[in-house]
Amino acid sequence: RKEVEQDPGPFNVPEGATVAFNCTYSNSASQSFFWYRQDCRKEPKLLMSVYSSGNEDGRFTAQLNRASQYISLLIRDSKLSDSATYLCVATLRYNFNKFYFGSGTKLNVKP
Amino acid sequence: EADIYQTPRYLVIGTGKKITLECSQTMGHDKMYWYQQDPGMELHLIHYSYGVNSTEKGDLSSESTVSRIRTEHFPLTLESARPSHTSQYLCASSESGGSTDTQYFGPGTRLTVL
């Protein structure tokens, strides 16, 4: 079983739409969580960290549900430039601080 | 912006050649990582390092080797390249402990072995 599982998509949405991605993690000892964005043939870049209390950065909102072991990312008012693959990440500090990446969810925002 | 660099960015090479992919970071991070990623596929951890003189194999078996003689430098070597090594190789680094354990990636090396 993978440490982090994501719906691969693709999610095809019109500009201005609200879209939500979920991912689940298997190890309840996971301590830190992140969303990364990866454009085609580029390196992953940190989008935002995910905190238990939830956090917001402009149009992006991330939530963590430890009881159900899932993380979510909500994108409001989608822009064409949001088209990318979004990677969910969980880390285990006691295990060298290994980062477990999901396989990514592809988002296509259409005009 | 992350200060982590990889060279070369693109490499096309014949089978049997020895190659070294360079990775350097100027952030003073102790932990460094190498990932392999095929187009449209997920990242696979192939090597990591806790710090100087420490290297470990990752989750995906790889014929490559790494070294960590200096904190800022984490090169990856393939002794004899094969077409199956064709992929993108991404280097990353992160701080030790604390709450800011974000991982930063270099721009990657796209390797093609003919």
Number of strands of chain B: 11
Q: What is the number of strand segments of chain A?
A: 11
Structural class by SSE content of chain B = mainly beta
- Quote the beta fraction of chain A: over 45%
Mean pLDDT of chain A: 91
What does the model show?
The complex is a heterodimer of chains A (111) and B (114). Chain A is an all-beta fold and 111 residues long. Chain A has no helices and eleven strands. Chain A has strands spanning 4-6, 11-14, 19-25, 32-38, 45-50, 55-57, 60-65, 70-75, 84-92, 98-101, 105-110. In chain A, the strands form two sheets. In chain A, strands 2, 4, 5, 9, 10 and 11 form a six-stranded mixed sheet that branches. In chain A, a hairpin with a 4-residue loop joins strand 7 (60-65) and strand 8 (70-75). The model of chain A has no long low-confidence stretch (mean pLDDT 91). Helix content of chain B is 0%, strand content 45%. In chain B, the strands form two sheets. In chain B, strands 2, 4, 5, 6, 9, 10 and 11 form a seven-stranded mixed sheet that branches. A four-stranded antiparallel sheet of chain B has the order 1-3-8-7, with no helix packed on it. The radius of gyration of chain B is 13 Å and the shape is globular. Classes of the chains: A mainly beta (111), B mainly beta (114). Chain A binds chain B through residues 32, 34, 41-46, 49, 87, 89, 91, 93, 96-99, 101-104, and chain B through 31, 33, 39, 41-43, 45, 48, 50, 56, 88, 90, 92, 94, 96-97, 101-108, 110.
